[in-house]
Design goal:
741 residues, alpha+beta, 24% helix
């Protein structure tokens, strides 16, 4: 089939410069192309996914999922990364119910960073050095031959050589022009089971866009197809009746429980390429429009904690007030665009994506950035004016070619494979002259197992009022927390939940006017449990730093030393394995949960409250239990949200009596925020118990105690606002459900 008119090429490809498709021979007069030309013509791209088995004898062998990313795929707007990667599996035959079947077990992943391609009229040769993501391997290369016939790819043969010795080849069949396949299951609450149920946005619908942006409709599926991910959305969705009396909003524990209960169509073990999303009404914090919760399914799978599977979009958020299926105005186009953005962004976290600024790329034009954070750095409306509805190249590399265990849902913990082997912001140092100060403070010593909580304080140091986003908890994305463990390892402490919502602006008075405390703002931030588990689970010395980044401000905190004590008794030491579990950690992170899936965690915290009553561990454990039992809890039963637990404010108050007495008798300023937080919780509980007089009395005592301890006038004024005016004024469930638009 040699055709001298079609020369071979040898090159290392570059983006936008793929291998040319073979063309028919050029002639001076018309003639039908030869039969050989039709056989050798290729209309499809080489890029895509291939899979096959190694040529071996016997039932035990090896299989390969192969991904070629060397030329443009048709029908998508996405760059060529010029990478080759794959996943290796062991294979064996097993007999189930008398039938032999092939079983694949994942082994490891690899990548070729700089493939070299040689093409002819009938095949392409791709070769390069293999880099394995984990473990130590001898020098390995791979040679891949891709062939085609009559316009279609016929397959690929991959041969690995270790130390120059070639092994048996893998014969791979072409499967898809995408690199991975993912199943999406979407469920809807009845209150928001309305059109549009999924976003479809025309890229030219809103005037604020790149001038050369192509005119096309973008959906969840097409956004991920551009990235190289074939998304299949299940056309059948479950409708959850959320009309139960008193159920006005969702908390994290209820979302997690709903995922555990509802995510049942894909019943294979974890990890798996399956993702669950729910469209709900509103979140407890009304400013949150979307959330990804890093929690695990309760049915089988790899280990005790498969994660990165569930997310929620809150349809009754103000962002979507103008949402309609066919936008005709700019406001409607904005709403649909943000609807699409929220779905794609939250689902993106399931692929192990951090936010852009957490990867030291705050100016990334990616689905994983925030439009308002980008605009704060680059000017109003610049994000959408430049955004091309895509992930950035580093994210594409991870999604298409990253270590399978770090990408697949239920694999490695969130952020473990997101290019954060060394946290990029850990060494951030603020220069002199900043108008904002971030200070971490708190106890310098915590008992063993005692959940760590610290005060995060912003203070205006300038001569003019300063407006800041008051959401200091890392789950809102404004603050990154770095912890140096006793062995010297520095980790990025990531929250198990990620809130995407509207900034909560706080105005700080000028420094000169701050004698009343109006120049500062503080929050107590819980740091006990994150995506990597319990951050402070070993005795020893820890160093903690935080970086606050918003509205063009990047401000690093002081470095706070914290010491975690050793177990004092054998009882503590023996209890530790029961305490340092996922169920306990999630219950703490969710600020209480009555979910049956976390019942072991609640039981352990209840035991801790009893065993260590009056001690810091016992007080904090009792508070977590009180947060759980003191509020209504709703969960899905037969496609309907029903009250699973009725608030028991009297039990919750009894649980926290000892802690309240301890805070009232103590005199340390480091406990002021914890004292205030407990009184705020108890005032809500008193209100639910129709005892506003008791709530008022405790708030007045708090104000008196804080005044005696030197709290400023602004804090005392805020404390007085904790007094409930009606029995349900401070209830989390008091807000009426927003009507869906």
């Amino acid at each position: 089939m040699d055709t001298p008119n079609v020369p071979s090429t040898h090159y290392i490809p570059a983006p936008g410069n793929p291998a040319s498709l073979p063309l028919p021979p050029q002639t001076t007069s018309f003639s039908w192309p030869s039969e050989d030309w039709w056989r050798c013509w290729r209309s499809a791209a080489l890029s895509g996914r291939y899979e096959g088995n190694q040529a071996t004898s016997g039932p035990i062998g090896s299989a390969l999922d192969l991904r070629l990313d060397v030329d443009p795929r048709q029908g998508v707007e996405s760059p060529v990364l010029n990478k080759v990667s794959g996943d290796l599996y062991s294979t064996r035959m097993v007999k189930v119910a008398g039938v032999n079947q092939l079983v694949k077990t994942y082994v490891e992943s690899w990548i070729v960073d700089a493939p070299v391609i040689t093409t002819t009229h009938s095949d392409a040769h791709i070769s390069g050095a293999v880099r394995f993501w984990k473990g130590v391997h001898p020098a390995t290369t791979v040679e891949i031959v891709v062939s085609w016939s009559h316009g279609a790819i016929t397959g690929a043969v991959a041969t690995f050589a270790v130390g120059g010795v070639a092994g048996p080849p893998y014969a791979c069949t072409y499967r898809s022009d995408c690199f991975r396949d993912v199943n999406f299951e979407f469920d809807y609450c009845a209150s928001v089971d309305i059109e549009p149920k999924v976003p479809v946005y025309n890229s030219h619908a809103h005037n604020n866009r790149p001038a050369d942006l192509s005119d096309r409709n973008i959906s969840i599926e097409s956004a991920y197809k551009d990235a190289g991910i074939a998304v299949t959305v299940d056309p059948v969705h479950t409708v959850i009746d959320d009309s139960a009396a008193g159920f006005a909003s969702w908390n994290v524990g209820e979302l997690h429980d709903a995922m555990e209960t509802s995510f049942g169509k894909f019943t294979s073990g974890w990890p798996a390429w399956n993702l669950w999303g729910i469209q709900a009404g509103i979140f407890d914090s009304a400013g949150v429009g979307g959330i990804m919760f890093d929690a695990a399914a309760g049915f089988g799978g790899a280990g005790r904690g498969p994660d990165r599977q569930g997310f929620a979009v809150f349809r009754s958020h103000s962002w979507f007030t103008n949402l309609v299926s066919d936008p005709t105005t700019q406001d409607q186009a904005w709403a649909m665009r943000h609807f699409l953005y929220t779905w794609v962004h939250e689902a993106g976290h399931a692929f192990n994506f951090l936010h852009a600024w957490d990867k030291a790329r705050p100016d990334s034009l990616s689905w994983m950035n925030y439009d308002w954070k980008y605009d704060q750095r680059n000017g109003a409306d610049t994000f959408w004016g430049n955004f091309r509805f895509r992930f950035d190249d580093d994210e594409l590399l991870h999604m298409r070619h990253g270590d399978r265990a770090a990408v697949i849902m239920g694999g490695d913990p969130w952020a473990s494979g997101g290019h954060l082997e060394s946290p990029p912001g850990a060494m951030t140092v603020s220069g002199p002259g900043s108008d904002l100060e971030l200070t971490l403070s708190g106890k310098g010593y915590f008992d063993y197992m005692e959940p760590v909580a610290l005060e995060f304080r912003l203070r205006n140091t300038s001569d003019a009022p300063l407006q800041v986003d008051g959401r200091l908890d890392p789950r809102y994305g404004n603050t990154s927390v770095y912890v140096q463990k006793p062995d010297g390892t520095v980790i990025l402490h990531q929250s198990v939940v990620c809130f995407y919502g509207i900034p909560e602006l706080v105005t700080l008075s000028p420094a000169a006017d701050g004698t009343d405390g109006s120049d500062r703002y503080s929050q107590l931030v819980q740091l006990a449990y994150g995506t990597g588990g319990f951050a402070f689970d070993e005795p020893g010395q820890y160093l903690i730093r935080a970086v606050y980044s918003t509205d063009g401000i990047v401000q690093a905190s002081n470095t706070l030393p914290v010491r975690i004590g050793f177990p004092v008794t054998k009882e503590e030491d023996r209890f530790a394995p029961d305490f340092f579990t996922r169920e306990v950690g999630l219950t703490l992170a969710f600020e209480g949960s009555m979910s049956p899936y976390l019942s072991k965690g609640l039981d352990t915290l209840t035991e801790a409250a009893e065993r260590f009553s009056g001690e810091p561990l016992g007080v904090k454990a009792a508070t977590a239990v009180a947060q759980s039992v003191g509020d209504d809890f709703y969960r899905r039963k037969d496609d309907k949200m029903v009250k699973h637990h009725s608030a028991d404010p009297q039990r919750a108050l009894a649980l926290t009596d000892t802690g309240l007495a301890g805070y009232q008798q103590g005199a340390g300023a480091s406990s002021n925020l914890a004292y205030r937080g407990l009184v705020e919780l108890r005032s809500e509980l008193h209100a639910k118990a129709n005892n506003t007089a008791a709530a008022k009395s405790e708030v007045e005592t708090l104000a008196k105690d804080l005044g005696t301890r030197g709290a400023n006038a602004t804090v005392l004024a805020q404390v007085k606002e904790l007094i409930p005016t009606t029995p349900a004024a401070r209830s989390r469930r008091s807000a009426p459900r927003k009507p869906a638009k």
